[in-house]
Specification:
Layout: E1 3-8, E2 11-17, H1 30-40, E3 52-56, E4 66-69, E5 75-80, H2 87-100, H3 105-116, H4 122-130, E6 145-151, H5 156-167, E7 172-182, E8 185-190, E9 206-210, H6 219-226, E10 228-232, E11 247-252, E12 256-263, E13 268-271, E14 274-281, H7 297-304, E15 314-319, H8 321-337
Parallel strand pairs: 5-6, 6-7, 9-11
Antiparallel strand pairs: 1-2, 3-4, 4-5, 7-8, 9-15, 10-14, 11-12, 12-14, 13-14
Length: about 350
């Protein structure tokens, strides 16, 4: 819930609840909410509990809205309601879980391939996504299901139903979302479990940012030679996730971290397919035509003492300011002494 703070004699002394709305209030449908959640499930909403989306609901099919995998290969199922959610939403997600719980690995892989429009091997994609030292065996996938109902509000029947099934050992939660209209702007509020842990966007952070090598070998030179962090096409929105003062680490597929720089400029759009911010490099940078020096991804995880979700433009988790400064120092020294 959002509250407006009242002020008297320079001190906050009153809380006034701010009315919230939902997607239906603005003419958006349930599919719009589904697409927003699915596209943000890794990058924004679940910062420290990364999930790998593998499937979304199809029209006229008895399916949940979003299916994802966690690091352990367990299936995470989302049922979304654009307005308030009632007890029927719990019944729905339980039916979907009963069905999905019987899915074989080959069926899950088929759904992932349909969703990603590729012939990708799910075992390999999952290993790369979560930076696992060893891939999961096919039989380790879908050993457990976790259920989430998302809505703008919950009635008493839904709360009672969720509590009942949790007591029966079912992994099920209700996650509220809310939309606030303040002035001419609209704000989306979302509560993630278990502790609603989100980094303060105002804090300086470290971001491992992909150079787009998988799609364009020249993208790295566009960034290095122009002092920029950039993203392209459908991924260009990720430039909006870094802010002035953040430290960006350039992650080059097949190599590792090749450079680091501090963001110093606002977002610019030189064309419809590109967004970038200016950076000031704080390490040496690779030169076109020369061998690329890089800190391997395994070394990065070793230095930071934690794994990263490597299969995205932005590699989660983010780093704190202290972690980013430490990694920048280590990277600077590594690039000097290793060839």
């Amino acid at each position: 819930m959002l509250y407006k703070l009242g002020l008297s004699d320079g001190k906050f002394d009153k809380l006034e609840p701010v009315a919230f709305r939902d997607f239906s209030s603005f003419g958006n449908n349930e599919k719009d909410l589904e697409n927003l959640i699915a596209s943000s499930i890794l990058d924004v909403l679940f910062e420290d509990s990364s999930l790998m989306p593998i499937f979304q609901e199809r029209k006229r099919k008895a399916e949940a809205d979003i299916y994802a995998l966690n690091e352990n290969g367990e299936l995470v199922i989302f049922e979304l309601k654009r307005s308030s959610a009632g007890e029927e939403a719990v019944h729905q997600v339980l039916r979907y879980a009963q069905d999905a719980g019987r899915w074989s690995f080959s069926k899950i892989q088929g759904k992932y391939q349909l969703y990603s429009s590729t012939e990708a091997d799910l075992v390999q994609a999952h290993q790369e996504a979560f930076d696992l030292e060893h891939p999961l065996d096919a039989k380790e996938f879908n050993t457990k299901q976790h259920l989430f109902v998302i809505g703008s509000a919950a009635d008493e029947n839904l709360i009672s139903a969720v509590d009942y099934w949790k007591k029966q050992g079912v992994s099920i939660e209700f996650l509220p979302y809310r939309v606030y209209e303040i002035g001419n702007d609209k704000y989306f509020e979302f509560f993630a479990i278990p502790y609603d842990k989100h980094r303060n966007p105002g804090d300086v952070k470290g971001v491992l940012f992909d150079t787009n090598r998988s799609y364009n070998e020249d993208s790295i030179w566009y960034m290095m030679e122009n002092n920029r962090v950039a993203a392209f096409g459908g991924a260009k929105r990720f430039v909006g996730y870094v802010y002035v003062g953040d430290i960006v680490f350039f992650s080059h597929t097949g190599f590792g971290l090749v450079a680091a720089g501090k963001v110093i400029g606002d977002i610019k759009a030189p064309d419809d397919e590109t967004l970038y911010r200016d950076v000031e490099f704080i390490t040496t940078i690779p030169k076109r035509g020369e061998n690329i020096k890089a800190m391997p991804f395994a070394k990065v995880s070793e230095v930071m003492g934690k794994p990263f979700f490597w299969a995205r433009t932005i590699k989660h988790p983010y780093l704190s300011r202290e972690e980013a400064e430490n990694l920048a120092k280590e990277l600077k020294e590594y690039l000097k002494t290793n060839t």
